[in-house]
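Entry for the shared binder. Reason: the reviewer on the internal report wants the predicted structure included alongside the sequence.
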Amino acid sequence: MKKIKIMVVDDDKDFLYLIQQTLGKEADFDVCSLCSSKKGALPAALTDSPDLVLMDLNLESTWMAWRLPAPYGSRQMPALLF
């Protein structure tokens, strides 16, 4: 079974560590990218092709949704803002 690739964008490095440790224990998930700023998030999303993006809303992460190619390849990239 294919693992779900997850990218996490948050400026809190402790949260990034916690999310990586928590999701990394799950057999079905692969944390493919951790970004501590919005600057590196778009290139990482385009390079790593995650299945899901978890983004901190306080980083003005909605900017990324407008910059991703639409459609993103042949599929949509779901994002969860927190």
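Summary line for the report: DSSP finds three helices and four strands in the chain.
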